[in-house]
Specification:
Helix content of chain B: 55-70%
Number of strands of chain B: 5
Largest sheet of chain A: 3 strands, antiparallel
Radius of gyration of chain B: 23 Å
Distance between the termini of chain A: 66 Å
Number of helices of chain A: 6
Oligomer: heterodimer
Number of helices of chain B: 19
Largest interface: A-B, 111 and 135 residues
Strand content of chain A: 5-15%
Structural class of chain A: mainly alpha
Order of helices and strands of chain B: HHHHHHHHEEHHHEHHHEEHHHHH
Number of strands of chain A: 6
Chain lengths: 192, 582
């Protein structure tokens, strides 16, 4: 009985491996590369000189007051796109509250006159450590600071933020977000 | 529950329920061999596979032969996957020059993917070559799912057939599931995912120049970001559809490359529950009484929806410890608010909570937010849904056959209460079926509680804990709840890439997968032999709301009573500490 099942086991394993482990990924790659080449390559942002300056889907770290800041990142070093990770700090862990306190202090230090409550996504670490987005509230919280440091009008900064805002899918699914790297590259006068 | 949370939850459930019937009928027709498009167009490929394998499709197997074929195929899978990992350094498609995977980790990973668990003690992008991900993991994502569905179909046949000694052919069930159900759905989903931004390439990682240089922990200047890529989309599609859950990247579907937009999140979340929910309809279709399928689905939803509502509202409330720190946690049109630690901005609270409940109700185990950082009761919902035995949707195939074991227990208890011989769908439930069903209901409990106790007594066990206090206990309890129910999600702060955990979790995954599958095949064999007793006035109807509620209560009582003491020491006490300290 055992030997009778050995041949089908080995042969079906090989055939299903070819089908699902070779042909299927190759078929997806073929279609992806020809129809959605940019996305299939990681939605990379390439500068005028042909240098890769990031990906629209992968966040970068910003702590200069002239930039919009993103989520905290628990990877090492921060925003390490070859080793994604969350903080995995439990809600009752004092390390979590310490991180939040430090972040609140850092945000206050560069914008001492801002007395508004700080949106929670700006003081917490994302799940991936690579979150490219923040909420609209988190972007507006920093708007006046960025405008002041750069000597721009708040109106101009707000326009840039709006330009890099993604709404909900069909107006209902997901949450509206601002792409941090997109805003900062535009602020720096980057042209693709 | 604000309006935003209600509407997004509602749309998700509605779309899921709309797809149950068409996919349920399609799968039923495939398993019954009725012409349904794909199995006509690709029948020559199917026949060629059988010819090369030397399989005679009309030849049925006894349940023991079926179990043997299933075990040989799966053991072969473990060996091959182990070997690929050990030799990946010298094989093709390794552009990042990943070294061989350590023996204990390779064992754990091989068992994990063959048992449809996809527990990951490693970080994908920093451990595995493209070849290992494709030829090793993607293949097992398909065939482990197909194995679960094949066993379910056999159990269904057990109820349908009269006085038959054979229960079908494993190779036929395996090939049909892969070829006509899993492959086409994955292909479509993978293409949509790429269109939305999930990478699919064989190029190696790229280096990007950072807009603002940063410093690493040693104070060294970092000016570049190395962005890991790969054939991601093809693996993500099947890991969601086949209730596998093993991510391409360490952060799983929280990673913007695995789950870039609200649309991909919606589809991936739908894919978690799609096949398990539709299989309920397939069940009703194949037993020629569709009400029975709806009844099972209703019992599942009766437990699923309350857990979902609790999780969303708890996470939306946020962390009371942050309220004093000048942080805004309330929902507004401009921000989701709530407990955002470990969650992604584009997904917010509601989509992270729905996912956490869906992925643990079904034994998928992929995550789009870090469960370790959920509020105590949010994490409790996830943990408890696994501990119920992965029968609320559960894994593809294995969730429903687990639920059928609970139905056997339920009709037995009901039979005792009304003094009738218990029967289900005209088949008498006797001592043998009850023994096997009890094994299925109780074995996972053993593999959760005993290893958890053991780990907490050993220094190597406690060394894995990341968070202090009761939360640390929850991490260990969660790990074994996940492994022993073939879920694969984690309170991921826990460091389980050690000899002790790789072996302990590996054994828990192995035994609770096959020690459940084989008794279910035995039940199928036994039922298949029996006559069908015509329904009489004394027959307990199993499609009524009364039975639905009764079934849900049986599942809850078994799960709740076993785990309440353990849960009280972990998430419940942590919740009380948090609320009293604020």
């Amino acid at each position: 009985m055992l030997l009778a099942q050995l041949r089908p086991a080995i042969v079906s394993f090989i055939l299903l491996t070819v089908l699902t482990g070779v042909l299927y990924p190759l078929a997806v790659t073929g279609i992806a590369q020809s129809v959605f080449h940019k996305q299939a390559q990681g939605s990379l942002i390439v500068s005028g000189e042909g240098r890769i300056v990031g990906s629209t889907l992968i966040g970068q770290n910003f702590d200069d007051p002239k930039y919009l800041w993103g989520r905290l990142s628990a990877t090492s070093p921060v925003y390490n796109a070859s080793s994604s990770s969350g903080s995995n700090l439990g809600p009752s862990n004092s390390a979590l509250t310490d991180n939040v306190k430090a972040r609140v202090a850092a945000l206050k230090a560069v914008d001492p006159n801002n007395t508004a409550l700080i949106p929670v996504d700006l003081v917490t670490a994302s799940g991936s450590g690579l979150d490219p987005h923040i909420s609209l509230a988190a972007a507006y919280y920093q708007l006046a600071r960025v405008a002041r440091v750069r000597g721009l009008s708040e109106e101009a900064v707000k326009n840039i933020i709006t330009q890099h805002t993604d709404g909900r899918f069909l107006g209902v699914i997901g949450e509206p977000v601002v792409n941090v790297l997109g805003v900062n590259l535009t602020l720096d006068g980057y042209r693709s | 529950m604000n309006f935003n949370n209600c509407i997004q939850t509602g749309i998700f459930l509605l779309v899921l329920l709309l797809l149950v019937k068409p996919l349920g009928i399609y799968m039923g027709r495939i398993y019954e061999g009725k012409p349904s498009g794909l199995n006509v167009w690709f029948s020559s490929i199917e026949k060629m596979i059988y010819r090369l394998c030397g399989v005679k499709t009309e030849q049925g197997m006894s349940w023991k032969e079926y179990a043997l074929a299933m075990m040989i195929f799966n053991l072969l899978g473990i060996v091959v996957l182990y070997v690929i990992q050990r030799f990946q350094a010298s094989l093709l498609l390794n552009p990042m020059a990943m070294p061989a995977v350590a023996p204990d980790l390779a064992f754990n990973t091989a068992v994990s993917f063959v048992t449809n668990t996809n527990w990951q003690s490693y970080g994908g992008e920093s451990t595995l070559s493209y070849l290992t991900q494709m030829l090793g993991l993607t293949v097992q994502n398909f065939v482990s799912a197909a194995t679960g569905m094949a066993i379910l179909v056999v159990v269904i046949r057990g109820f349908v057939q009269r006085q038959m000694a054979t229960i079908g052919n494993f190779w036929v069930d395996l090939v049909r599931t892969t070829l006509y159900i899993l492959l086409p759905l994955s292909l479509v989903l993978a293409i949509v995912l790429v269109a939305q931004g999930v990478p699919q390439t064989f190029d190696s990682s790229v280096k990007a120049t950072l807009a603002q240089a940063t410093k690493d922990s040693t104070g060294k200047l970092v000016t570049e970001q190395v962005i890991a890529l790969g054939p991601v989309a093809s693996q993500i599609a099947i890991k969601q559809l086949g209730t596998n859950g093993g991510g391409y990247f360490n952060a799983n579907s929280a990673h913007p490359y695995e789950n870039p937009t609200p649309l991909t999140n919606f589809l991936e979340m739908l894919a978690i529950l799609l096949i398990p929910a539709a299989l309920c309809y397939t069940f009703g279709y194949m037993v020629r009484d569709r009400r029975q399928g709806w009844a099972i689905l209703a019992a599942m939803l009766l437990i699923f929806i309350p857990c979902l509502l609790v999780s969303v509202s708890i996470e939306q409330k946020g962390n009371p410890l942050l309220n004093r720190l000048g942080v805004q946690q309330s929902f507004s049109e401009l921000q989701p608010g709530g407990n955002m630690e470990g969650k992604e901005a584009r997904l917010g609270i509601v989509n992270s909570s729905i996912w956490s409940v869906a992925t643990t109700a079904a034994s998928n185990g992929s995550v789009n937010a870090m469960h370790d950082s959920f509020m105590p009761l949010g994490g409790l919902m996830a943990m408890w849904l696994m501990q119920l035995g992965e029968v609320i949707f559960g894994g593809v195939g294995c969730g429903l056959y687990g639920m059928l074991a609970f139905i056997i227990v339920a009709v037995f208890i009901a039979g005792l209460m009304i003094g009738r011989t218990p029967e289900y769908l005209g088949k008498k439930i006797e001592a043998f079926e009850m023994k096997m069903a009890s094994l299925v209901a109780l074995i996972p409990h053993m593999f959760i509680l005993i290893p958890t106790a053991l780990a907490l007594m050993l220094p190597v066990g406690k060394a894995a804990i990341a968070n202090p206090g009761p939360h640390g206990f929850s991490e260990i309890l969660y790990a074994f709840s996940s492994a022993a129910n073939n879920n694969g999600s984690a309170f991921a702060g826990v460091s389980t890439n050690t000899l002790f955990y790789n072996i302990a979790l590996g054994l828990a995954m192995f035994f609770s997968r096959f020690w459940l599958a084989i008794p279910m095949l035995a039940i199928a064999g036994s039922l298949s032999h029996k006559k069908i007793v015509p329904a009489s006035q004394g027959t307990l109807p199993t499609h009524t709301p009364l039975f639905v509620v009764f079934l849900a209560i049986v599942v809850l009582v078994v799960g709740a009573l076993t785990f309440f003491p353990a849960l009280a020491l972990g998430p419940i006490v942590e919740h009380l500490m948090l609320t009293s300290s604020s």
